[in-house]
Amino acid sequence: xxxxxxxxxxxxxxxxxxxxxxxxxxxxxxxxxxxxxxxxxxxxxxxxxxxxxxxxxxxxxxxxxxxxxxxxxxxxxxxxxxxxxxxxxxxxxxxxxxxx
Length: 100
Fold this sequence. Notes:
This protein is mostly helical. Helix 2 (29-52) packs antiparallel against helix 3 (57-87). It has helices spanning 3-22, 29-52, 57-87. The protein has a domain at 24-91. Helices cover 75% and strands 0% of the residues.
């Protein structure tokens, strides 16, 4: 794959991702966030494996950055999901949903 094909795939996936996410109903954001946290955890494991087999300083640097960014993504995703779920928890004083 040359540079133009890779750039085309990246731009196309960004537009497609934006269109898909923008059409998700509000009630489905929390379940989708949990699912994406699962996928991000798998990405983090892949980054750890890539770092483990990296040869040379450039590959090790890129692998290290991938692990750091993957860990931040997983941690941030779980923090956001926890905050969203806390908004619907009646026992902690949240407003809760419409159910009695």
